[in-house]
Give the backbone structure.
Amino acid sequence: MIKPTHHIFVCGSFRPTGAQGVCHKKESVQLLQYFAEEAADRGLDGVMVSSTGCLKACDHGPVVVVYPQGTWYRSVTEDVADAILDALENDTVATEHLLTAAA
């Protein structure tokens, strides 16, 4: 396994009660697959993609977080995913889609 340079977390909105929240209802599972396939297609071997439990930002879902930067993205679609991956390739941030960023 290659040590990842970036880790993309896609909110799966899984909760301890078993309920699934907004991100799941907005097809974050398909978004997870899109990120993984698109990163592979682009040859971004250092990008790992994972699903998370609820990130508690439901009003902004689907939510995606990119580490190690700690960058949070809101209302992510496949077009926004492309912008995020473009930003990773260019060592920048897709600022127009930010929810918040780590200080």
Remarks:
- The chain has a mean pLDDT of 91.
- The longest strand covers residues 6-14.
- The chain has three helices and five strands.
